[in-house]
Design a protein that fits this description.
heterodimer, A: alpha/beta, five-stranded mixed beta sheet, B: four-stranded parallel beta sheet, 8 strands, 9% strand
Chain lengths: 259, 444
């Protein structure tokens, strides 16, 4: 049996997916990238191999993706996260026409054609607004665990608090003043989520009618953000159980295509 | 104007400049030739001539002040009018582009920012103002203007930018207002522009102390027309497969038609260039060793990244064969053949791409896609140039929907290198290459 690995080195997390000949996921890992992306890639691959109970030599091909794709040792090919997210999303949800991916440092919207081919895409400008990093900073400021942000925002009563600033740095001080004004945390969080959705929504509309939408990336785990997107779309989105590994899965699938 | 200055200028022009530049050139030559890039075809031989013309243009500008009236003008100004009065013309936009190419844009922009100019302001304007405040420039010395002439056909910013210079230097400013063409250009628009041109003539007569020489003006207009038409022919050679030139060449090769339009040197140069290009077409010599995909560029060049981008695209055997930008100095210029040169100028300078609506730009793109057989479009969203960058996402969507041409947007700038983010641009471009190459097809 031949195995294939996809390594996605992002700004916040490094994800590895190992699949077999039949494109079945054998194992996967998600770790923090930290300061050294090469070490992170090695460590994540190591751990995925261990879980799968196989050796490095059992892997026929490795495709690296993400911002750190150039620093993955032993990768057979480097492919951008846009193509990989497209491939991963198409594999999980074959009818998908649009992918909204919100990662640590960027957000992107990808339009898919037949066979998961990328026909168009847009990415955020060089600014952390509308990214996972934005959520992380805000969670820190509110002293709320990142994983609690979603559930808390779903509990918000009434209208969310309006976050007028689109800049992470300014939004941070805006949040501080909202806390000082005793706004309920849930409503502030919902407001933060709304700011992200507004930002990314422009990109969604920029590519025309979205059709069936897949959401991927770490932020897809946040049900609060997803719910606001679904409100805008007027339809539910397709979100896998592990949205963070869609890029790495796509990379593994493309590695399988290489052979 | 002093007689001594005039004599100095004419001496430098005919004898001194060549001698001094030869001396300077000999000192610089020690570097030796750079390694040829196997992905690129042979270098254009005419480029050496162009280098001399550019060097000479900026070198001579040091001696112009005092010898003749100096005008600072915008790239879309009807320079033919000023030439008829013997003005020495300097193009701040071209100078800012040179500063950008020399990677000194950010440094000079900062001077303007320290004086309170916002970093959101066009970097051409910031470089120009920064240069004015500090004298910083990679070209030695720019002569200070005696008069300013700007035309609003490229943007509204020039109006305020030139007003600021006029204020600092306490010199006259002539502003030619070209109403934006929301739909078609009207007779009223033409009349309005022609009236302003006549008024400008009166002002220039007063300022220069010279009578307007109509025949000389007509001769200059004819020269300008011929030069622009030749530039159009230069760009037309790129319709050939493989294209004998890349758009990165064209970004440099356009200097004469932009800055020296109306002077014989520009026309003469394009005659040399076109001969070389036509020979390449005949011999099947391309600018790239192996041109596999043909691309179009939208917006002004990223001057500080010309080399890197040129190499990156060449690595993938992708050649830019057309740009909305480079065509701006040929696409409307046939109106210069109008029997009434004032009307010719009004039409030529009011119909420029940035003075027309987005639908016009879409049609221009469609024409280029068909005529140059374009496979993909790279859209430069320039922080500086709002009139060029607004609406690009709509264009992107329409170009895909209507003409089935995929595109990518890169966020960058024309002269301020601080705006550039290497990894972000690289990721977008590589994803674009992958989509063009079908790497993602049948992925799962």
């Amino acid at each position: 049996m031949a195995y294939f690995a996809g390594v996605d080195v992002g700004s916040l997390s490094t994800d590895v997916v190992i699949i077999d000949d039949n494109a079945e996921i054998i194992s996967y890992t998600v770790i923090e990238t930290g300061a050294n992306s090469t070490q992170a890639a090695e460590k994540a691959l190591e751990s995925a191999l261990e879980q799968a109970g196989i050796k490095r030599r059992d892997i026929a091909k490795v495709v690296a993706t993400g911002y750190g794709r150039i620093s993955v040792p032993g990768a057979d090919k480097k492919i951008t996260e846009i193509t990989c997210h497209g491939a991963g999303a198409h594999h999980l949800f074959p009818g998908a026409q649009t992918v909204i991916d919100i990662g640590g440092q960027d957000s992107k919207v990808i339009r898919l054609g037949p066979g998961g081919k990328v026909i168009d895409f847009v990415m955020n400008d060089k600014c952390a607004a509308g990214t996972g990093r934005f959520l992380e900073v805000m969670a820190g400021k509110l002293q709320v665990k990142l994983s609690d942000m979603g559930p808390l925002s779903l509990k918000a009563q009434g209208e969310p608090v309006k976050i007028s600033s689109v800049c992470t740095v300014f939004a941070e001080s805006e949040v501080v003043s909202l806390v000082a004004q005793n706004h309920p945390t849930e409503q502030i969080i919902k407001g933060i989520h709304k700011a992200i959705v507004n930002r990314v929504w422009n990109m969604v509309k920029g590519l025309g009618e979205p059709g069936k939408v897949v959401m991927s990336g770490g932020v897809a785990k946040n049900r609060g953000v997803a719910a606001l997107f679904e409100e805008r779309l007027g339809a539910p989105m397709l979100i896998s159980d592990e949205p963070q590994i869609v890029g790495a899965l796509g990379a593994a699938l493309l590695a399988r295509n290489q052979s | 104007m002093s007689l001594a200055k005039k004599i100095e200028y004419w001496f430098m022009k005919d004898i001194g400049a060549d001698l001094l530049m030869k001396f300077g050139g000999a000192a610089k030559k020690k570097k030796g030739p750079s390694k040829p890039n196997p992905k690129l075809g042979p270098r254009l031989e005419a480029s050496a001539v162009l280098q001399r013309i550019i060097a000479r243009h900026y070198f001579m500008s040091r001696f112009a002040k005092g010898a003749m009236p100096v005008a600072w003008v915008t790239s879309g100004a009807p320079v033919e009018l000023l030439r008829a009065f013997g003005f020495y013309t300097v193009y701040p936009e071209n100078h800012s582009a040179l500063c950008g190419a020399a990677k000194r844009g950010a440094e000079i922009c900062q001077v303007a920012e320290e004086r309170g100019y916002a970093s959101e302001l066009c970097s051409y304007a910031r470089v120009d103002l920064g240069h004015l405040f500090s004298g910083k420039t990679p070209v030695g010395l720019l002569p200070k203007p005696d008069i300013l002439f700007c035309t609003t056909n490229i943007c509204a910013t020039v109006g305020y930018w030139y007003k600021a210079i006029a204020h600092y230097l306490q010199i006259p400013l002539i502003q030619l207002d070209t109403p934006f063409n929301f739909t078609e250009m009207t007779q009223a628009d033409e009349d309005y522009i022609v009236a302003q041109l006549h008024e400008s003539v009166e002002e220039l007569e007063k300022f220069s102390g010279r009578k307007f020489n109509y025949n000389e003006f007509v001769r200059i207009c004819e020269m300008s027309h011929a030069t622009s038409m030749l530039w159009g022919e230069v760009l037309d050679t790129m319709k050939t497969k493989p294209s004998p030139m890349t758009i990165f060449d064209a970004f440099t090769q356009m200097l004469p038609v932009v800055s020296l339009r109306g002077l014989p040197v520009a026309k003469n140069y394009y005659e040399i260039l076109i001969e070389e290009l036509q020979q390449r077409v005949k011999d099947g010599v391309g600018a790239l060793a192996n041109e596999r995909k043909r691309l179009m560029w939208d917006n002004i060049a990223v001057w500080f990244k010309l080399n890197d981008l040129s190499k990156l695209f060449a690595e993938h055997d992708m050649n830019f064969v057309v740009a909305t930008y480079t065509s701006s100095w040929s696409s409307t210029q046939d109106h210069m053949s109008n029997a009434d040169p004032f009307k010719g100028i009004a039409q030529t300078y009011s119909r420029t791409i940035l003075n027309c609506n987005l639908n016009h730009r879409l049609h221009t793109m469609q024409q280029s896609i068909e005529d140059w057989d374009v496979d993909g479009l790279v859209i430069h969203s320039a922080r500086s140039c709002k009139p060029y960058s607004v609406g690009q996402y709509d264009l992107k969507r329409l170009v895909l929907e209507r003409f089935d041409v995929p595109s990518v947007v890169i966020e960058a700038d024309i002269a301020d290198e601080r705006v550039w983010s290497d990894e972000q641009v690289r990721t977008r471009l590589e994803a674009f290459f992958e989509a063009l190459e079908d790497d993602g097809r049948e992925a799962a």
